[in-house]
Design a protein that fits this description.
- The structure holds two protein chains of two kinds.
- Chain A is mainly alpha-helical.
- Chain A starts with a helix and ends in a 12-residue tail after the last helix.
- The C terminus of chain A is likely disordered.
- Chain B folds into two domains: 30 residues; 74 residues, no CATH class.
- Helices cover 76% and strands 0% of the residues of chain B.
- The chains are: A mainly alpha, B mainly alpha.
């Protein structure tokens, strides 16, 4: 069931995130051009890969003369966390037809994931979940493509005096804070953040995010299992 | 196909496969076993912290706790906790960072 009001809620929820996404998209457009790959490659990355950090990393490998395989492995590694997001969202969308789920998968990003899981965990009708997700996902997609095109045309003309890149972690911080209300969630966050930092310090590079997430998930699961009856009802994750 | 386009298309296909992985099988996940649900429940805090914390404590690619981004991030966390508002947190967090960077020199 399509719900215009939920789609609008998704669009409104994602709007502040564009403060961080648009400058990032400008860089995603400008960097491949600066690296000699051309504007079409930048647009190809933004539409076909549609995942900022991996686009920049793959473009850098290719611009430095690296092989296609090296660029592919870097991009895949950075995007491994999408498997976790997919697993986390799937139970909430089990009632949707396969075609819609496969369409929704294309729009899966950190932002669409984080907003949707927060919205869906707090209740609401299952039938309108996809509307919220698509409202957020489509706005984000359109902004990303527009920013990429602008980046291709403008080059590196992104203002340097305002640290706009800081908007990206701030947005995830706002979504993280209300989640860490139970002991397992605190453990997952502490070990997730600590694991990512440790992984990066030990040279895991682009793998460090997924390494950290895996460590955090393991820690949270252990604390949750040990916590017993005072935890939330087991199974309360999907519809 | 050129090296660049081969990389773009295969990167994108693999990334899409990762995005679709569990969503494609979601019809079998209508009733998640409690053990699996316990694991899935940890994904939001673990993944979000793995995105946020490195950006606050190693902004230049190495661990550094004495820099404006960590302090601005802590203030922003407090604001996020009190307001739950993305816009307010963004504005105050960025303003804090700009101010701290000016002071830090």
């Amino acid at each position: 069931m399509w719900s215009l009001s939920e789609a609008r809620a998704g669009a409104v929820a994602v709007a502040p995130m564009l403060i961080g996404v648009v400058p990032f998209g400008l860089v995603a457009g400008a960097a491949p051009v600066a690296g000699g790959l051309g504007g079409w490659a930048a647009l190809g990355l933004s539409t076909i890969v549609f995942a900022g950090a991996s686009q920049l990393a793959a473009a850098e490998v290719l611009a430095d003369g690296g092989s296609a395989l090296a660029a592919i492995l870097v991009a895949w590694t950075i995007n491994l966390r999408m498997v976790l997001y997919s697993a986390s969202l799937a139970p909430y969308l089990s009632h949707e037809r396969i075609g819609r789920r496969l369409g929704a998968a294309y729009l899966l990003t950190d932002q669409a994931y984080a907003l949707s899981v927060a919205r869906w965990a707090s209740g609401g009708k299952p039938e309108v979940r996809l509307s919220f997700y698509l409202g957020a996902g489509i706005v984000l997609w359109a902004a990303w493509q527009a920013a990429t095109i602008a980046g291709v045309l403008l080059g590196g003309a992104v203002p340097d005096d305002v640290p706009l890149d800081f908007a990206v972690p701030l947005v995830f911080l706002v979504l993280l804070v209300p989640v860490v209300t139970t002991r397992p969630a605190v453990a997952a966050a502490v070990f997730g953040g600590g694991g990512a930092v440790a992984g990066a310090e030990l040279g895991a590079g682009p793998l460090s995010i997924v390494v950290g997430a895996a460590v955090g998930i393991a820690a949270g699961t252990v604390v949750d299992a040990l916590g017993g009856r005072d935890r939330r009802t087991p199974g309360r994750v999907g519809p | 196909m050129s090296r660049v386009w081969l990389a773009i298309v295969v990167s994108g296909a693999g990334t899409y496969a990762m995005r679709a992985s569990f969503l494609a099988a979601a019809h079998r996940l209508a009733h998640v076993p409690p053990g699996a649900a316990r694991v899935l429940r940890q994904i939001p805090p673990a993944a979000l912290a793995a995105l946020v914390v490195p950006a606050l404590v190693r902004p230049e690619g190495h661990l550094d706790l004495l820099q404006p981004r960590l302090l601005a991030g802590m203030v922003a966390a407090l604001v996020a906790w009190r307001t739950r508002n993305v816009g307010v947190t963004l504005v105050l967090g960025m303003a804090m960072l700009v101010a701290l960077e000016a002071v830090w020199g």
